What does this fold into?
Amino acid sequence: IKMSFMLNNGAQETTCTELFKAAYENRYTWESNFPGYEGSCSWTDGTREMKGRFCLGIDLKATVKEIDDEKINKAISSQLWEVAIHRVKRSFEQTHGENTFTYGETSEIGSEIIVGGKNKGDKYRVKNDVVTMVYRHIHGNLIVIHTKDVTHTNNGYLSKSYTSQYLDPISKKDLKGKNFYKDDFKPLFKGGPWVLASRSIHQESLEGSILNKQIFSFSELKSLDSN
It folds into this structure.
């Protein structure tokens, strides 16, 4: 009986790993020959608006020009960098080779994947080859991301509508309210890499009222190798 349990458990674990791996590999990433790109950028909070130019190099470093407000300049370059860093292709083995995966419960947002091994304590949910929830311990914080809607590129998916929340890793209490994101992506050129066209972020207070809203827009986009 013990042997049969181990075999069944092992089979379940493999299936769980395969399910998570399929969703992981279904995320949209850029090819290694990503050329970098540039264009116009703007930021608004509904009251103020600032416009400038930006460049994202092949090294994924973002530079923003013509916007003198240091905080806004940094906010725009941070959004570009954050999107770019998630487009880097890393194999499942590179990222999760030291982890194990077992099933938790299943709900309307997907099958729960419980992580053991190196990243023990992390959790994910997967539905229709999409990672619908991320529950990860990063730099002493616990971050929880729920993906509501995605953009299908025919070469993997991009998160379109999602929330992120920082929790205290011990008490699991919300640290600073929930952020709501809406992202719009488009191909840089026909058949080219998909890049961010706009991102809106609004933050809710712990009581549920909207604290602030920011909209980042990127237009007149062109590849750096087309100059």
